[in-house]
Specification:
single chain; alpha+beta; six-stranded antiparallel sheet; globular; ATP-binding; Rossmann-like_a/b/a_fold
Length: 645
């Protein structure tokens, strides 16, 4: 894992610029730094040494000097690829996976991407063809951003590095802000920064003098909803899943340093940790977040699982006030406004891993998207069930069963439940059917937008924009697969793997690895029939079946509890920090121009005086506060400048 930056075009003071860009992302690679400069091209690299520690320095050039790479991430099947290249007569100078990419690219050009099983972003300067090639992994685990300034292409692992380019400034993108307040994240290639873009997952950019092209090299796909399934025997499918998952974990244990594991106490991280524990000669080191809030705490399950696998277990407790204390740092590393505080405890957790002396951890992220584990999938099934008899007073009660961890929902009437989940007016043919309640509830927070921001947006609709990005085959998929696609293609890379994943871990120089996002596993799960993933209202059925021998019964049969953290209440009440009061003051909000100052003042007071608030108020509070912090951190100016730009 590392960070890199670079450019393609003619610039002045290349060495000084690369030094500034690399320094801005030094947290991603604290072990060493390097630069490469050629006529009209340059690369800078900050290294976190995990594989090929002694000989994997970057930027790395091939023997001819015609190819040079800066690489962030890992290629987990590099040993197999290396063996294949050696069989073709190629020789290697290093033991690193970086050189494998170089030699594979020399053989195949950008077509080599189809062979890479890894989490990566890289830039290759191809001197023979006078072109810069940028690429990103299939699922969007590793970030890569770019911008154009005065005819020069600049790129980097984080936007902080791009802001070191003369003439590139930080300005909020109002459309991206609207997307965040609807979809939880911008729709790539858009970012929170105006005129700074994100290379989309599973994409390759080829830049030549006078031309830049971007194209996908892989697509997430599902079978036709009426096509007969290739999986007719559930036991056989579970056996194949077990073999794939075991190999995915085994590949991700490859490192020249110890590998630990996050342990949330849920099914996914427990499965990964159990498999990893059997693959390490020493005790597996596991790491958990606990909360002093009983509503969010899962420490009892974490302790049980750690004991079951004999792990060397460490826990960090997120106390009241801890989230508020680290939140400005979270926004600095996330580089975008967010509407939830969930990244903050994960930022603390990666700090705990760093204190333990580790650089690499496995996580269970991705299983919910790949095997239909989220409540939203069950919720959509119940909504379809209710829509077939909209007058029923019994069916809506199923919504209470879905959300036992939300006490407020248990007290609501049948009429409220029907209205909230859109039972009466649901359109079963709506491509966003599964996600409409979430988008509607989140977008309600936009009631706090200012009149000037609304005028700037001019009726823009983020949800309909999302519809326009859906693939042509989308309408032919089963409803569960449609819902899975929306989660996997947009929210997973846009929020889960970014704001909660790479950015929080790499803030402390920690590399997260995701066995459930192994491309073989993703493609296998996509082909599974929906009833093997969501059986009735039992989520991840096939995963439970395949891994039940690994887990204590209490964890293997446990219903999904989504990872959450306290939101607005983390910031208000006794001990409220000065920066919160300052950022949300009427003067600060009014000067900014993005939000309605009087409405925000009422929201602030409401959150101070009432012990609990709904999702809208929580999302609005966190979203507004994080936007204010984003603007102060990256521009040092009042937010109103964005609308005038």
């Amino acid at each position: 894992m590392c960070g890199f930056g670079g450019y393609f075009g003619s610039i002045r003071d290349a060495e000084a610029l690369l030094a500034r860009m690399t320094a801005a992302i030094a947290h991603r690679g604290p072990d060493e730094q390097g630069t490469f400069i050629a006529p009209d091209a340059g690369l800078g690299h900050a290294r976190l040494s995990v594989i090929g520690i002694g000989d994997g320095q970057q930027p790395m050039s091939d023997v001819s000097g015609n190819l040079t790479i800066a690489f962030n991430g890992e290629i987990f099947n590099y040993l197999e690829l290396r063996a294949g290249l050696i069989a073709k007569g190629r020789r290697f100078r290093t033991s690193s996976d970086t050189e494998v990419i170089l030699q594979l690219y020399d053989e195949m050009g950008e077509d080599c991407l189809s062979l890479l099983n890894g989490d990566f972003a890289f830039a290759i300067w191809d001197n023979r063809r006078r072109r810069m090639v940028l690429a990103r992994d299939r699922m969007g685990v590793r970030p890569l951003f770019y911008t154009n300034k005065d005819g020069v292409l600049y790129f980097a692992s984080e936007i902080k590095a791009l802001l070191k380019v003369p003439g590139v400034s930080a300005e909020i993108d109002p459309i991206a802000l609207d997307q965040i307040f609807t979809l939880w994240a911008p729709i790539a290639p858009r970012t929170a920064f105006r005129n700074i873009h994100e290379l989309e997952p599973a994409s390759v950019m080829i830049a030549t003098p006078g031309q830049v092209t971007v194209k996908p090299y892989w697509h997430l796909d599902y079978p036709h909803r009426d096509a007969p399934s290739e999986f007719t025997n559930e036991d056989d499918a579970a056996e194949e899943l077990q073999a794939l998952l075991t190999d995915a974990v085994s590949l991700r244990m490859r490192a020249d340093v110890p590998v630990g594991s996050y342990l949330s106490g849920g099914l996914d991280s427990s499965v990964v940790s159990a498999l990893a524990a059997g693959m390490t000669p020493r005790k597996l080191q596991t790491f958990s977040v606990a909360f002093d809030s009983a509503e969010h705490d899962e420490s009892a399950f974490q302790t049980e699982m750690a004991s079951a696998i004999g792990a060397d277990h460490r826990t960090i407790v997120s106390h009241a006030g801890d989230i508020a204390r680290v939140f400005p740092e979270v926004i600095h590393f996330a580089e975008r406004p967010i509407i939830r505080t969930a990244p903050a405890p994960l930022y603390q957790l990666s700090g705990l891993v760093r204190q333990a002396g580790l650089k690499v951890v496995l996580t269970g992220e991705g299983a919910d998207e790949v095997f239909a584990g989220y409540d939203i999938f069950k919720e959509a099934r119940v909504r379809r069930f209710c829509a077939r008899q909209p007058a029923s007073r019994m069916r809506p009660k199923l919504f209470r069963k879905l959300y036992p961890y939300l006490p407020g929902l248990q007290q609501q009437s049948v009429e409220y439940l029907s209205a909230f989940f859109g039972v009466d007016n649901a359109s079963l043919d709506d491509p966003l059917f599964s996600h409409r309640p979430r988008f509607k509830t989140t977008a309600a927070a936009k009631i706090f937008f200012s009149g000037d921001l609304r005028a700037t947006l001019n009726g823009y609709n983020a949800a309909e924009d999302l519809v326009s990005r859906l693939p042509q085959a989308f309408s032919l998929w089963h409803p569960l697969h449609q819902a899975q696609y929306l989660e996997t293609r947009f929210l997973l890379p846009g929020y889960i793997l970014s704001s909660q994943g790479d950015r929080m871990a790499m803030a402390h120089g920690i590399e997260g690895r995701f066995p459930f996002l192994d491309p073989r596993l993703v493609e296998f799960a996509a082909r599974l029939p929906p009833e093997m993933k969501l059986k009735g209202l039992v989520e991840k059925h096939i995963l439970r079946k395949a891994t039940k021998h690994l887990l204590p019964t209490a964890i293997g049969e446990r219903t999904k509890q989504p990872y959450r953290a306290p939101d607005a209440r983390s910031f208000v009440g006794a001990g409220e920090l000065d920066y919160v009061r300052d950022a949300l003051s009427e003067a600060s909000i009014a000067a900014g121009g993005l939000f309605n100052a009087k409405a925000v003042a009422k929201l602030h007071e409401k959150c101070r005086t009432q012990p609990a608030s709904g999702f809208r108020d929580n999302a609005a509070f966190v979203g507004i506060l994080s936007t204010q912090l984003w603007q102060k951190n990256f521009t040092g100016q009042e937010v109103g400048a964005a609308l005038a730009a």
